[in-house]
Design goal:
This protein starts with a strand and ends in a 12-residue tail after the last helix. The chain is of the alpha/beta class. Helix 4 links the parallel strand 6 and strand 7. The strands form three sheets. It has a six-stranded parallel beta sheet, with helices on both faces. The chain has a two-stranded antiparallel sheet with strand order 2-5. Strands 3-4 form a two-stranded antiparallel sheet. Helix 3 runs parallel beside helix 7 and helix 5 packs across helix 6. The chain contains seven helices and ten strands.
């Protein structure tokens, strides 16, 4: 019998990232970091007050991953929620990192007791989510991510997937509006786990959101 499928992001969902990235930026580059939703391009400022150019921003992110990944800390309740969900569901961690970081991410999550399949991705997550759903036999599926554009991508490529927005960083969550293409916004893993279990138990496809047909 096909088990339900959970496809889950990592940074700001399972592991804190921006708080540690900000500390590292100050230490390494004397750059201030004030998260502006999901757009890092508007979040980084040099000591002279000038913004960090987008190309330089990507260079700094590539410095942080994978060399500084050990700084990241576990989101409260994340490991426990995944452990409970894994009793009845398959779990895939779909993380937007370069492919060269995949083994580092696997090892990083394992240190926190999270041992599930990890897939790296670049760009929108809709295509990879649709491929995973097909690979696992088209089960009832829940997608969890913090970024609105990934929910929109999944809505367009795999509209039958239930989409939950979860932003685990308290410094960011209050300033980020709910993703229009997500079915729900829950920033706590205890409540998120219950919502996911309800979707799995219902065994049906997702409803339409923002005019995307399921």
């Amino acid at each position: 019998m096909t088990r339900p499928l959970l496809i889950c992001d990592c940074d700001e969902v399972l592991l804190h990232m921006v708080r540690h990235f900000g500390v590292w930026l100050r230490e390494r580059h004397d750059v201030s970091f004030a998260p502006d939703g999901g757009d890092f391009a508007n979040s980084m400022t040099r000591a002279d007050g000038s913004p960090v150019e987008r190309e330089a921003m990507w260079g700094m992110l590539n410095e942080f991953f994978p060399a500084e990944m050990e700084r990241q800390t576990l989101v409260p309740g994340a490991a426990e929620a995944l452990a409970a969900l894994s009793e009845t569901a398959d779990i895939v961690i779909l993380t937007n990192l370069g492919d060269h970081c995949r083994d580092h991410r696997i090892a990083q999550l394992a240190k926190h007791g999270i041992n599930h399949r990890v897939e790296t991705n670049q760009g929108g997550k809709g295509g990879p989510v649709a491929a995973l759903v097909a690979e696992y036999g088209d089960p009832v599926t829940v997608f969890v991510d913090d970024l609105a554009h990934h929910h929109e991508s999944v809505a367009r490529h795999a509209p039958e997937v239930h989409r939950l927005q979860l932003i685990a960083e308290p410094a960011m969550a209050p300033t980020v509006p709910p993703a229009p293409f997500a079915h729900a916004r829950i920033d706590d893993w205890a409540d998120a786990r219950d919502w996911i279990i309800q979707r799995f138990s219902a065994k049906g496809p997702a409803e339409n959101v923002q005019g995307v047909s399921a």
